[in-house]
Amino acid sequence: MKALVICGESISDVIFATPAIRGLRVDVDDISVHVLVHPDTSFLIRENPYIAKVHLHAGLFSTWRKLAGEHFDLIVNLNGHWRSRILSRLLNAPERRLATSHWKKWLMVRFKINHITSKHAVEHMIDVVRPVGVSGDNLGLDYFIPDHDKVSRHGLPEAYRRGYVAFCMSAPFLTRKLPLDRMIELCDKIRRPIVLLGTSEDHENAEVIWSFFSGSGPRRLQQDGSLFGPRTHIYNACGKYSFNQMASIIKQSLAVFTFDNDFVPVASAFRKQVFGLWGSTSAIFGNYPYRTRYTIMEHNDLECRPCSSQGFDRCPKGHFKCMRDIMFDFYLP
Asked: Full-prediction pTM beyond 0.70?
């Protein structure tokens, strides 16, 4: 049997799909698993031993022409976009499709009517392939880092070689991230050496955080009026590493602090203790840490939250209380 798994377009979609891919290869006899991904996310699965061949999206009809000669026996469609449905029909093979929950999310965001199940996004994907013999192995997510992308801890500053916490600052929308002053407050409370991870767009904010704790930046007051103490070592790694290299840094960390972003499944894949901070979105949408210890910090007493399943560039209400007033309630051993 030859099966094609059509993944979603985001990094999270691809990593969350790995248990279903592994289940197909392990549980189904005589199967060859091919995967279709967006070119920007193909690096995530190049080293995956459960995949026979990786195909790249290149437009609907171009992709169909390239795949038609493969003569697939099964299509596993884990992509909710309408183009993937058309592609499945054009390939003319039996299809197992992930049910979309767009209307349920819309009801929750617009009217706060909750018809969303508590099941994780990964479990929904595994349910898609259960009818073909996949049982689910409870082994969590897969992430295979190429040797050339592995970052040695000895390559980090000396203060971090005995252990550090990773703080993943990136998020696709501003309302998924803490304001800068609250990031500083969080770093002060962590009280461990911290590696700040993100893209080049996060570098400027990360530099402000580093400047503050290095003693060269202005001192600021906490909410109770007391001064922050310069107890935290900060390494600004934003924009310095590729995504695979940042995954390698996360793999060697003591714990991970993150927003609702693509680092959530990465930390989950390496069984890290995750401390997640959710703002305008909500963990109820199913993209929370998977099969690892985690703490979700979110402001559940706001009537306006969640205001989006994706996020905004600014708070629609103007107050941003979901992140401004969030409690940093965690224990880091």
From this structure: yes
